[in-house]
């Protein structure tokens, strides 16, 4: 990993659909050099996946999301890893993190409606042996995600020429 | 009725881009590469600092030289960034943009009859500033073969007994050229031997992509005969705030302060509070913007060269400066036709001085998408003129 690799990652994270010729220009490499670097980044799973940022609220698909916080008793030898791996297998769990503070794990859970999420938490998460407490925080509106602002903003005007 | 306008002001030629401005106004799909300002909004923490200052009623004049805390921050910034030392108490004036600094510096040091050497090509205000002060601008060519840098030979050639000041701007608008510390050292002898004052406008210095960002006054022999002009517009995307500063040895600063206090009193107060925040907590945002400019530079300059427009890779500012001499059109005609026929706005290089002839100033302070579209249109235009 060098500065060029870091720049490539930053630019792809911003827009993974950027034409490869343009990206090569931006980082001042030949197309071949760039592609071989990306291949390494993909192989090392530093680039995990190419995906789209979707504003589902705008799409009107009625998806509901909640942050679910868990207090978990760590297991001897495994800590939080085993329970985290079990939780991560659920398709409803979009992200899962070990966090500091009052809770131990934080999940982002999605469902078609509130009931689906509460049922998931009540039936699939809370009963797990090592889970001591859950707290569900409903997401009411997304303003910014992945560094992208979800509301339209009028940008300032500039003159076509200035010196 | 008499003509009431002074001969001095009448001697100033009208702006070389007025015509282009009028043409562009009539079109609705122009991609403008004609802009000399960053396209980012000022970082939010900086804006918020100004809002807070206004909410708290900090709306009065400040000290003529600027807020104490701002000057202290400027002193720290210059020391940490360039190893240049200026005393915030006596060697610094906060101004309404670098433009005001430039004006009051020139008026503070130029007498009628003085010759002022101006690095050519350069920001177009320079020659007018000199003329308004009664001085005579003398252009010192910075040539493409020297990567548009100032050389001691070019300076020496233009020196007469009347020469008093050397005025330059690196990283350069319009060429994107950068002077390294060694480049400044190379001109130090000719400046010292001829007892010149160096006025160094370093407004683009944060936008240095290759090598170290530099201040002319960091060269020891030059410090006592250098006035450093800088500001917040380009580094923090704060053009509309009108906030800049000048630093000069104490005796010179004291004289120039007289002009500032009579024409401006003090720089806008809200902008000064924003400036404190910029220097304290804005450098990360500045670095991000610089990285974006570097990416665009690479994208755009590589694209132009592939499109058939010979363009050197500029090391600073946000301008590409392609050479159009091979197409048999003057830079002015090239720019006008490119605007009229393919709706891309650029500024002809000759606007910036004789040495800018045959070049175009293309600002890449615009979105990557627009830059790619502009390259396509330029390629089409080149195909058109090559056919005929």
Question: Please, could you describe this protein's structure?
Answer:
By secondary structure, chain A is α+β, with helices and mostly antiparallel strands. Helices cover 34% and strands 21% of the residues of chain A. Chain A folds into 2 domains: 41 residues, Arc Repressor Mutant, subunit A (Orthogonal Bundle), CATH 1.10.10; 80 residues, Alpha-Beta Plaits, CATH 3.30.70.920. In chain A, a hairpin with a 2-residue loop joins strand 5 and strand 6. With 388 residues, chain B is of the alpha/beta class. Chain B has 2 domains: 135 residues, Aspartate Aminotransferase, domain 1; 238 residues, Aspartate Aminotransferase, domain 2 (3-Layer(aba) Sandwich). Chain B is built from 14 helices and 12 strands. The longest helix of chain B has 25 residues. Chain B is globular and about 65 Å long. The mean pLDDT of chain B is 96.
Which key terms come to mind for this protein?
heterodimer, A: 163 residues, alpha+beta, Arc Repressor Mutant, subunit A, Alpha-Beta Plaits, four-stranded antiparallel sheet, two-stranded antiparallel sheet, 6 helices, 6 strands, 34% helix, extended, B: 388 residues, alpha/beta, Aspartate Aminotransferase, domain 1, Aspartate Aminotransferase, domain 2, 2 domains, seven-stranded mixed sheet, 14 helices, globular
Fold blueprint:
The complex is a heterodimer of chains A (163) and B (388).
Chain A: H1 3-14, H2 20-26, H3 31-43, H4 56-59, E1 64-72, H5 81-88, E2 93-98, E3 105-111, H6 114-125, E4 131-139, E5 144-145, E6 148-149
Antiparallel strand pairs in A: 1-3, 1-4, 2-3, 5-6
Chain B: H1 7-10, H2 18-25, E1 31-32, H3 44-55, H4 68-82, E2 92-95, H5 97-109, E3 115-120, H6 125-132, E4 136-141, H7 152-158, E5 163-169, H8 181-193, E6 197-201, H9 220-223, E7 226-231, E8 244-247, H10 250-263, H11 269-281, H12 283-307, E9 319-320, H13 331-342, E10 344-345, E11 347-348, E12 360-363, H14 368-387
Helix pairs in contact in B: 3-11, 4-11, 5-6, 5-10, 12-14
């Amino acid at each position: 990993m060098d500065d060029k690799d870091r720049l490539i990652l930053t630019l792809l994270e911003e827009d993974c659909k950027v034409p490869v010729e343009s990206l090569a220009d931006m980082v001042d490499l030949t197309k071949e050099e760039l592609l071989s670097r990306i291949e390494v980044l993909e192989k090392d799973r530093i680039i995990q996946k190419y995906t789209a940022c979707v504003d589902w609220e705008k799409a009107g698909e009625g998806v509901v999301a909640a942050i679910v916080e868990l207090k978990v008793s760590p297991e001897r030898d495994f800590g939080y890893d085993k329970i985290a791996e079990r939780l991560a297998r659920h398709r409803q769990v979009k992200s899962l993190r070990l966090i500091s503070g009052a809770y131990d794990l934080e999940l982002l859970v999605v469902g078609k409606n509130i009931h689906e999420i509460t049922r998931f938490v009540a039936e699939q998460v809370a009963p797990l042996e090592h889970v001591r407490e859950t707290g569900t925080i409903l997401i009411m509106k997304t303003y910014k995600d992945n560094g992208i602002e979800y509301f339209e903003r009028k940008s300032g005007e500039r003159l076509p020429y200035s010196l | 009725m008499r003509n009431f306008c002074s001969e001095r002001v009448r001697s100033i030629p009208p702006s070389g881009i007025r015509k282009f401005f009028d043409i562009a106004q009539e079109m609705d799909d122009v991609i403008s590469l004609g802009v000399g300002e960053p396209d980012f909004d000022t970082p939010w923490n900086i804006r918020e600092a100004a809002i807070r200052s206004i909410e708290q009623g900090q709306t009065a004049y400040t000290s003529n030289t600027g807020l104490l805390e701002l000057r202290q921050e400027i002193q720290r910034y210059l020391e940490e960034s360039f190893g240049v030392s200026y005393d915030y108490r006596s060697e610094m004036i906060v101004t309404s943009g670098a433009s005001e600094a430039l004006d009051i510096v020139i008026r503070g040091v130029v007498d009628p009859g003085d010759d002022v050497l101006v690095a050519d090509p350069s920001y177009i205000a320079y020659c007018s500033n000199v003329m308004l002060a009664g001085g005579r601008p003398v252009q010192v060519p910075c040539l493409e073969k020297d990567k548009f840098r100032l050389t001691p030979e070019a300076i020496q050639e233009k020196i007469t007994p009347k020469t008093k000041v050397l005025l330059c701007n690196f990283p350069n608008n319009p060429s994107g050229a950068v002077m390294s510390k060694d480049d400044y050292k190379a001109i130090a002898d000719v400046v010292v031997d001829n007892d010149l004052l160096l006025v160094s406008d370093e407004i683009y210095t944060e936008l240095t992509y290759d090598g170290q960002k530099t201040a002319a006054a960091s060269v020891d022999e030059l410090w006592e005969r250098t006035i450093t002009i800088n500001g917040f517009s380009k580094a923090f995307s704060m053009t509309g705030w009108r906030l800049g500063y000048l630093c000069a040895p104490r005796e010179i600063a004291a004289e120039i302060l007289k002009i500032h206090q009579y024409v401006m009193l003090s720089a806008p107060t809200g902008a000064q509070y924003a400036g404190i925040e910029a220097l304290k907590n804005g450098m990360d945002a500045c670095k991000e913007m610089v990285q974006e400019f570097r990416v665009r530079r690479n994208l755009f300059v590589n694209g132009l060269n592939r499109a058939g427009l010979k363009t050197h890779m500029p090391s600073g500012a946000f301008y590409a400066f392609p050479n159009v001499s091979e197409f048999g059109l003057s830079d002015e005609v090239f720019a006008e036709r490119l605007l009229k026929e393919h709706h891309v706005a650029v500024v002809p290089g000759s606007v910036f001085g004789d040495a800018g002839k045959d070049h175009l100033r293309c600002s890449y302070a615009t979105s990557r998408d627009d830059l790619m579209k502009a390259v396509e249109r330029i390629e089409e235009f080149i195909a058109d003129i090559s056919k005929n």
